[in-house]
Specification:
Number of helices of chain C: 10
Order of helices and strands of chain C: EHHEEHHHHHHHEH
Mean pLDDT of chain B: 91
Oligomer: heterotrimer
Structural class of chain B: mainly alpha
Largest interface: B-C, 52 and 42 residues
Chains: A mainly alpha (194), B mainly alpha (555), C mainly alpha (271)
Mean pLDDT of chain C: 81
Low-confidence stretches of chain C: 1-6
Shape of chain B: globular
Strand order of the largest sheet of chain C: 1-2
Order of helices and strands of chain B: HHHHHHHHHHHHHHH
Helix content of chain B: 55-70%
Shape of chain C: elongated
Bound molecules: copper (II) ion
Number of helices of chain B: 15
Largest sheet of chain C: 2 strands, antiparallel
Distance between the termini of chain B: 38 Å
Number of strands of chain B: 0
Number of domains of chain C: 2
Strand content of chain C: 5-15%
Structural class of chain C: mainly alpha
Largest sheet of chain B: none
Distance between the termini of chain C: 38 Å
Chain lengths: 194, 555, 271
């Protein structure tokens, strides 16, 4: 007698991990959608400055970092599936580095906005919506980054092997999702909202 | 509930602390399901007592049973409790208990996440109720939230709700919301990936189908509430301006966000009721469910349409003609798939050899009462009519017909139906009949008359009223019905206690039913099935009971 | 699946308190916002405890517990065949009335029905105008009141004279209403039990006359003022009878209800 009867009547090829991750992404999408709607709704409704057009600069470096990290994480997963440990670790740490670069760029941007421009979450509607939307995205990047770093550390210690590739792959799905959210945030905040 | 194992089957005596430890550390879907349902019932009693206090206050004009402040807290906590701490856990509990059994699995897809979800729900509820002791409201003393279950801004903003009672409301619901979300993820993942051999999607019991659809609705509709509550929290803690009208914020935006969750929530609560009825009615009519695929399709349709009707709660806000017409039309369209379901249940009963046992009695009452709820719903969807009765007791009567006449009645039916499976003991039929008649008559006395006060113009949420409005007799009758309902629920409580102590053993399959949960023992072993079942049709047990006339010949 | 034996068991996820700690930690962490920082700190501790415990449960391997099978006596009995015979519902039996429309009139039969009904009704209405009110135009002008609000204010003399616009609108409304009622008739009339003409020709017009009587004040106030109910009923019945007669004259067509289930489903199966 074996352990849980795992999907024998199942024509679909999805594993429960994949389904669970996709559902998590669905719920998160719905969560971000409200913040994005809130941001769009309040564009141009701030009663006082600073206004987006005056203080926002296109976060080119951050965007490049984050988008390219989606590529490196795929490289890492492929390498793990093919059991090439060196390439796997290189991919993971490149991802962590790029994600860290994104967070650093965001931190610098916020520092400029707070210190130089005097924009706080309580300053006006722009501050309110900007910090909550970008902040929630950054928080998701942080969570993803911590998990990736953990995978990296465990990988160095030799705990991550080929059979864990599916789990790392699921983490990469989440990471892609964070990336896609950034594309939406970028469009809304830095293109439409300025 | 299941901590009352029979003395003769239990080989060694176990200490109470052992039993407690088992329940606290469990990741078993059946135990968690029972925990969900039991805590939901406890909160149901608490919420019911709050309602009773309000009905005592309103029974006669110029009453001073409770103060206005206490009254505000009562209706806020009553609504919040009944939706988030009664409806949600009970539907999640039944889903948890039954989905793996119905699809022939050994557990949910994510057993630990399942346990986490239950504890999040429970701690969220406790946090909300801790506000009675811990929160400082406007009056200094500890007090519960008093801004209504939908916490409209700007009333719920920092300027008008001093103290942190409203923060308790936000945090309690956010925390318990994680429970619902994880439950939803778990139910879908289980139904999609853990089905036994032969259990194709088209052979899943309707219960499982409907819970899957509900779970999708939870995943789409609940995070927006969390997001909106986080915004409100930012407003209150960090001085943000999302709903701060002084700084250009928009109070109506809160209403949109809230009801984008709030309306689908009604269906999130009601579709599980449909799910119970869809299992109970065929078994007690001795006929196969009429229009299986139409039922699935109609549920999917309800799921989609109900996401685009939320602003029918806001006709009085002044959204403009275009939006009003859109939301009125969309709302009326929901009536079509819902009506299809009603006809399917009736067609299932039609020509059947109906056995009116207690579960079936409750489902029959549900059909009639839910029809009334649906008809007043269509009335309220007509904008001019809505303008007349909005925020009146007519609306209160309408949604109590949905949630009590519809949901609570099917939940009672479901408890009478599946309690034998969960505990191994039958609930007493005679006590059940007392429960049914007292509760249903009491419910109708209370809430049919409540339509009357509403049409006479009595507004919701007033703590008292003068004697010259012509509302006295209506209110008195409404309050008297509560006595009958409480008497009914007491019979239910007594029936449960009696069954657990000395109930008649249920056997594996007391109702001669057809879905897989009845093929295992009652209560089922930890691993559910000795052998993994194999199914060939929608009614696997029928096939076994009637080998010469099996269902798979027709499907 | 292998046969279970008493010395065997099944592996299930093992119990753990970590999810409880994790949930408690998260709740206390948030509860600190409304109570005290210390609560948040305790929460953080539980959070870490729960998170680490949870990780250790699932990594590197999901921890499982060996549950022995129940003893033979406790197990579920195998589901045994029932002796009682199964009743199959058949069409037309006592408890299960069914009316299967084996033949129906084509929906297009509604058009000749509408034409016949429209003419019959117009004849009665115009007779009423000429004989009782002394003007052919009065009923026509009144009908136009459904769409023309100005008819409400018109004087009796104006109502008795010809108006081009009112005539056009009245004709349009008459045709539209007749066609819609005709089409509904064509689908329902032949399916009504025993005497279609009685139901469709007399009962239905009486019914909707009742409806018209109750809403006339809203829909067409002018008509309500002048209407003569006996004549109104007569014109409706004329419509019903004429339309019904015309529809029943059209040759019926067979529906798929006369075919067997297998044939309807497109399955080539021998009987
Ligand atoms: Cu609604």
């Amino acid at each position: 007698m074996t352990a849980p009867i795992d999907g024998q009547g199942n024509a679909t090829a999805w594993s429960r991990g994949e389904v669970g991750t996709l559902l998590l992404i669905l719920a998160e999408t719905s969560f971000f959608a409200i913040f994005i709607v809130g941001y769009l709704f309040y564009i141009g409704k701030s009663l006082s400055g600073p206004y987006p057009a005056d203080v926002l600069e296109l976060p080119v470096v951050a965007t490049i970092c984050l988008l390219s990290s989606s590529v490196t994480v795929v490289v890492a997963v492929r390498a793990l599936e093919a059991d090439r440990r060196g390439a796997f670790l290189a991919g993971i740490f490149a991802t962590v580095l790029l994600g860290g670069g994104f967070l650093a760029a965001t931190a610098l941007e916020w520092r400029k906005l707070i210190v130089d421009d005097g924009l706080m979450i309580s300053t006006n509607l722009f501050g309110t919506t900007f910090y909550s939307l970008v902040g929630f995205h950054a928080a998701h990047v942080t969570v993803g980054l911590l998990l990736l770093a953990l995978v990296g550390v465990l990988g160095v210690l030799g705990f991550v092997r080929k059979e864990h590739a599916t789990r790392v792959d699921l983490l990469s799905w989440y990471w892609h999702f964070v990336d896609v959210v950034w594309i939406a945030v970028f469009t809304v905040v830095y293109v439409v909202g300025v | 509930m299941a901590s009352i194992p029979l003395a003769d089957t239990e080989p060694r005596r176990r200490f109470r602390s052992d039993v407690l430890h088992d329940w606290v550390t469990t990741v078993d879907h059946k135990k968690l399901g029972i925990l969900y349902i039991a805590s939901g019932i406890v909160f149901f009693v608490i919420g019911g007592l709050e309602a009773t206090a309000m009905r005592i206050q309103l029974a006669v004009p110029e009453n001073d049973f409770v103060s206005p402040e206490v009254f505000n807290r009562l209706f806020t906590m009553h609504g919040t409790t009944m939706v988030f701490l009664v409806g949600m856990p009970i539907i999640t509990g039944f889903g948890n208990y039954l989905i793996p059994l119905m699809i022939g699995a050994r557990d949910m897809a994510f057993p630990r996440l399942n346990a986490w979800g239950f504890w999040m729900f429970l701690f969220g509820g406790l946090l909300l109720y801790f506000s009675y002791l811990g929160s400082t409201g406007l009056y200094g003393a500890g007090s519960a939230p008093d801004v209504g279950w939908f916490a409209y801004t700007p009333l719920a903003g920092k300027a008008f709700s001093r103290g942190n009672a409203t923060d308790y409301w936000i945090l309690g619901i956010v925390v318990s919301g994680f429970g619902s979300l994880s439950g939803a993820v778990n139910m879908i993942a289980t139904a999609l990936t853990m089905r036994c051999e032969g259990m194709s999607l088209g052979r899943m019991p309707l219960f499982v189908w409907m819970m899957v659809i509900v779970s999708f609705m939870i995943l789409v509709a609940l995070p927006p509430l969390t997001a909106a509550q986080v915004m409100l929290l930012f407003d209150r803690f960090l001085g943000a301006h999302f709903f701060d009208t002084q700084a250009g914020g928009d109070a109506v935006l809160w209403q949109h966000f809230f009801w984008f969750f709030g309306h689908p929530e009604v269906y999130i609560l009601m579709i599980p009721g449909f799910a119970y009825a869809s299992e109970i009615i065929p078994v007690f009519s001795r006929k196969v469910i009429f229009g299986y695929s139409v039922m699935v399709g109609a549920t999917v349709a309800i799921g989609f349409v109900s996401l685009s009707v939320w602003a029918h709660h806001m006709f009085a806000v002044g959204m403009g003609r275009g939006l009003n017409i859109w939301f009125a039309t969309a709302t009326m369209i929901v009536g079509i798939p819902t009506g299809m379901k009603l006809f399917n249940w009736l067609a299932t009963m039609y020509g059947g050899r109906i056995r009116f046992r207690v579960p079936m009695l409750f489902c029959t009452a549900f059909l009639a009462q839910f029809l009334v709820a649906g008809l007043t719903g269509i009335m309220l969807a007509a904008v001019p009519f809505d303008w007349q009765v909005t925020d009146s007791y007519f609306v209160v009567a309408h949604f109590h017909f949905v949630l009590i006449g519809g949901l609570v009645c099917t939940i009672f039916g479901a408890i009478y139906y599946w309690f034998p499976k969960m505990s191994g003991r039958m609930l007493d039929e005679r006590l059940g009949r007392w429960h049914f008649w007292l509760f249903v008559i009491g419910f109708n006395v209370t809430f049919l008359t409540m339509h009357g006060q509403g049409l006479l113009g009595m507004p919701r949420r007033i703590y008292t009223y003068p004697a010259d409005r012509g509302w006295e007799i209506w209110n008195l009758v409404t309050s008297l019905g509560v006595v009958l309902q409480i008497a009914g629920v007491l019979f239910f409580v007594y029936a449960v206690i009696k069954a657990l102590r000395s109930g008649e053993p249920a056997g594996d399959d007391p109702w001669d039913a057809w879905t897989l949960e009845w093929s295992t023992s009652s209560p089922p072993p930890d691993y559910n099935f000795d052998e993994a079942p194999v199914v060939r049709s929608r009614r696997p047990l029928w096939d076994l009971k009637h080998p010469d006339d099996p269902d798979w010949k027709y499907e | 699946m292998t046969e279970p034996h008493d010395d065997r068991g099944i592996e299930l996820p093992s119990p753990t308190a970590s999810p409880l700690y994790f949930a408690l930690g998260l709740s206390l962490l948030l509860a600190g916002l409304v109570t005290h920082e210390l609560v948040s700190m305790v929460g953080a501790a539980f959070f870490v405890l729960g998170a680490v415990g949870w990780w250790r449960q699932v990594l590197p391997q999901e921890s499982e517990q060996w549950v022995p099978l129940q003893s033979e006596a406790e197990r579920a009995r195998p589901v045994s065949p029932r002796r009682a015979a199964v009743d199959h519902l058949t069409a037309g039996e006592d408890r299960h009335r069914m009316r299967l429309p084996v033949e129906v009139r084509p929906i297009s039969a509604g058009l000749p029905g509408a034409a016949a009904g429209a003419v019959a009704m117009a004849v009665v209405a115009c007779t009423y105008g000429l004989v009782v009110e002394g003007s052919l135009w009065l009923p026509i002008n009144l009908l136009a009141g459904i769409v023309l609000p100005s008819v409400d204010q018109a004087s009796p003399e104006q109502l008795r004279s010809f108006h081009g616009l009112a005539f056009g609108l009245a004709c349009g409304a008459h045709v539209l209403l007749s066609v819609s009622v005709g089409l509904v008739y064509a689908t329902t009339l032949p399916m009504l039990p025993s005497r279609p003409l009685l139901w469709g020709g007399i009962a239905a017009p009486l019914l909707w006359t009742g409806v018209a009587w109750s809403v006339m004040g809203l829909v067409n106030p002018a008509l309500e003022q002048y209407v003569s109910w006996p004549w109104f009923v007569a014109s409706q019945i004329a419509f019903g009878l004429a339309a019904g007669w015309a529809i029943l004259r059209v040759a019926p067509v067979a529906t798929s209800q006369s075919l067997s289930l297998a044939e309807r489903a497109g399955i080539e199966a021998g009987r």
